[in-house]
Amino acid sequence: MVGAQLDLPADRSALSTPVPAAVTRLAATVENLRAELARSHADAAGRSLIEMAAGVLIERLHCAPAEAATQLTVLAEQANLPVLEFAADLVNRVAADRISEIAHDFVASSAAPQPGEVALRLRTAQAHTLASSDSQAVARSILETALRPLGAAAVAIWAANADQSLSLEGSAGFGEDEARRWRHVPPGVATPARRALDEREAISYPTLAQAALPTIGQHEFGGGRIVVPAGTGGRLIGVLEICWPGDAPTGSQPLQRQFEALAELCATTLETWTEPSGHLGADRDFDELQRLVDGILDPCLVLQLAPGSPDFPLDFAVRHLNPAFVDFAGRPAGSVAGARLLEAYPLAAEAGGLAEKVEHVFATGEPFRTRDMRLATTVDGVALHAQAQLSISRHGQHVVVIWRLDDGTPRVARLLQHAQRLGRIGGFEENLQSGQIAWNDTLYDLHGLPPTAQPISLEQLANYAHPDDRAAIGRFLRTLLHHHRPAATAFRLHRPDGVARHIRVVAEPVHDQHAVVTVIRGAYQDVSAQHWTEVALAATRDQLAHSEKQAAERSRLALQLQHAIMPPARGPVSLRDLQVAVRYRPAEKDHLVGGDWYDTLTLPSGEILLCVGDVAGHGIEAATGMVALRNALRGLAATGAGPAQLLAWLNSVTHHLIDNVTATAVCALYDPATRRLRWARAGHLPPVLLRAGRARALPQPSGILLGALDQADYEEAHLDLEPGDTLVMFTDGLIERRDQSVQASLDSLLALSEKAPNAADPADTLENHLDHLLRYSSADTDDDTCLVGIWVREAPSTR
What we know:
This is Antitermination regulator. Residues 30-91 form the ANTAR domain. Keywords: Hydrolase, Transcription, Transcription regulation. InterPro entries: ANTAR, Bact_Sigma-Reg, GAF-like_dom_sf, PAS, PAS-assoc_C, PAS-like_dom_sf, PAS_fold_3, PPM-type-like_dom_sf. GO terms for molecular function: phosphatase activity; RNA binding. The protein is 38% helix and 25% strand. By secondary structure, the protein is an alpha+beta fold. It folds into five domains: 40-131, no CATH class; 135-276, GAF domain (Beta-Lactamase, 2-Layer Sandwich); 283-410, 2-Layer Sandwich (Beta-Lactamase); 424-526, Beta-Lactamase (2-Layer Sandwich); 560-792, Phosphatase 2c, domain 1 (4-Layer Sandwich). A six-stranded antiparallel sheet has the order 3-2-1-6-5-4. Strands 17-18-27-26-23-24 form a six-stranded antiparallel sheet, covered by helices on one side. It has a five-stranded antiparallel sheet with strand order 8-7-11-10-9, sandwiched between helices. A hairpin with an 8-residue loop joins strand 7 (300-306) and strand 8 (315-321). Residues 1-17, 19-23, 96-116 and 273-282 have low confidence and may be disordered.
């Protein structure tokens, strides 16, 4: 058994008999298995973190998984960091989650000397959580990777049950007996974890003695405690409790957010937790009662006694709802199940109400039945009522409540109540002869008045409105009271509590048998949300029009800049014994101005510079980045350095002098005297050589994209060209497809190159070849495309 513990005396002479060899081997085996298990947990977390980092490189570099893994190793070596630490840093840079925010806070804080270690610890704990759904393993990982460096000695992960009890789902640092004793905390037991759940916020205790609450490890660790609620989507499902042997670390906002992030990691494993069979659902009596009520055709609740306060000695929780249950307030059954009776139906606490009847039945055992029981509750602050036939009976420790709602008028009244609640509508009726005014409950709420207040008459309405709206109210009253016609208007209501609401009022006169107006009835509706939505939409429309105008102007400037630097090519250019032609195809959408660029130049040394590149992104930023890189490479090429050195310098320029820019590039130098082509690449696709009717991609020397690192080395390759050779350098917009890999797209380009037609005039062959590649390209990413074609003539030119 792996978990066995062999307690051997430290002084072997104290043993009356020698330890058998079998026992010694067993102890060694147990230790080896423990070490192997710990390594397995660490390896699983490390593999998960490295796989996340490799996924980032696949998305950013558009490369295969194997190449991404190699690139990750190369980048870690160049950064002089372990692969695991580099992977955590990479994931932290691209993520926009709680952990990346915490790392940013630590970087900005002068009190955090090693922010990289914080990010690594949190990312490792996150990876372990993703690799395992076992809360026990997650607790060990959180303690060892994230909390042990902060001085913590133990950690506990509690799960909150529907019956207000707690279950210890995972722990680390405590003894096995201690964890077993605290496996389940019954309802009503006050612990630090229960207090954090009730207050829905993290609680810190300088020492456990100051807490004066029982909890796990209270005899082992009497130092500081921090308990943090764990939940997802606004729902609390557990608690993370952290223990220190001495004082807890001084609270700070970055540190507090780190604990909250760890609690969120615990919540991911508690999401899959199911209530143990040894608690609520296991007793036989309840199983029989559950089967009984499930066969009843009327709505039925099964209540169980729950710990209460001194004000309510008998408090009941809703333990089960039968399949026929329908809440008379229209709420889903899930919002009632598991709640306290007075939480789900607070108005049941009124005198003679449902709660009082349930208490009497539970205390005396006498059943209660009535044909006319008023049920009430509140939904969104609106009181809802229903009349029902009610039956209450006790079954052991449970109380069964069965109701049957009356049909007819009460059902229509409930529908009307819901319509008024959802539409924020309050009805009124004013008797012009007696002066009596009747309001419903919603109308009091709209006006911000208590139900006992005196309703406001129509004549007084202008006194509660905004001064600018009093004229509109006057026209409304004249139409209604003088012309005796239905009327409507909107105004701003100033409530006694200082809140201003936008109200729409609709009213009509009611005539008696003598055609005399005796009653005015109508409704007020709170249209504040609609008003502010219209205001927000108008502001959004104005902002959108301004943004579109700015975007169009930026696109126009970027196009002008692009055309000024790289005007459309008009025919091939002769450079010594080379014929060079260029094709540039912008993105399909006019506003997607890209960063593709090319350059061909004869250097003072007599060599010919050939290059093509692609700046990441679109728009004015990409266009300006392309201009900066193209001009920088021209200046650097004048030094006479080789292609690899030129790219190394260009990488430093990209990293230090151009903000937030990364790019790929191919740089080549051609010597007309020897026809030798030297070239290097920075994360770019390789050139394609067409020789004697056969096309092939040149072998790829190593080299990462420009701007990724401060310093990078690039490998140089060379190729001896022959007369009649055609070399094509291109950007990824020529071949990229969403439904296939880069290698498959490159293979399609090679096949397409071999099918290009030859022109009658050899001088036109190169242009026909480039036009053929553009015309029949299967790319579907709407990206810019740039091609540079080089054809070697039969004899060197004398020009």
